[in-house]
Design brief:
globular, alpha/beta, about 40% helix
C-alpha cells in the first residue's frame, strides 16, 4: 500500500493531521514531518528520510503532500527520490488529505494517487459571495449535542 506523508514549513502539517483525526477519527497511517524554524535543510532531510524509513511497507512508495513547491520540505522530498519511490504533490489542503486518506484502497498505485490529488474534487477550492440581507435557503449548522 502507498504510504502518505505530509510535510510543511512549521506546524501546518501537524495541524492537518490533527484535523484529519478529529474529522475522520483516525490518521490512516499518515505521518507529518514539519520543518521547524531555524532547522537546517540537511537536518530536515535526514528527519524526513528517517520517517520514510520507519514505514514497514516501502515497495509501493510514498505519496508526499507538501505545503508549497520549491521550499525546503518540497526540495528535501525531491532529493530523497534518489533513495525512495516518491510521488510529490504541492498545495496540500484538508479536502485533499481527506479525499486521499478516506478513498485510498489497496489497489491504488502511486500514479493513481498523484492523479487523484490533483483533480478538481481533491483541490476543494470554492468561491462564494454572500450579499448582506440575502435570504436564500442555506443548510442549517449541525450541532453535536453529545
Amino acid at each position: 500500500m502507498v504510504n502518505v506523508v505530509i510535510i510543511s514549513h512549521g506546524e501546518f502539517c501537524e495541524g492537518l493531521l490533527s484535523s484529519l483525526k478529529m474529522i475522520a477519527g483516525d490518521t490512516f497511517g499518515v505521518k507529518a514531518v514539519p520543518l521547524i524554524p531555524g532547522e537546517a535543510p540537511e537536518s530536515y532531510r535526514e528527519k524526513l528520510a528517517d520517517t520514510l524509513s520507519s514505514y514497514s511497507e516501502k515497495e509501493q512508495g510514498f505519496l508526499i503532500l507538501s505545503d508549497i513547491a520549491g521550499g525546503t520540505p518540497f526540495q528535501s522530498a525531491a532529493y530523497l527520490s534518489k533513495e525512495f519511490k516518491i510521488g510529490l504533490v504541492s498545495g496540500m489542503n484538508m479536502p485533499m488529505l481527506l479525499s486521499l486518506t478516506l478513498g485510498k484502497t489497496a489497489e491504488d498505485t502511486l500514479d493513481s494517487l498523484v492523479e487523484k490529488a490533483t483533480t478538481e474534487d481533491c483541490v476543494g477550492i470554492q468561491g462564494k459571495i454572500f450579499g448582506r440581507g440575502e435570504r436564500k435557503q442555506r443548510a442549517k449548522l449541525s450541532i453535536n449535542k453529545n
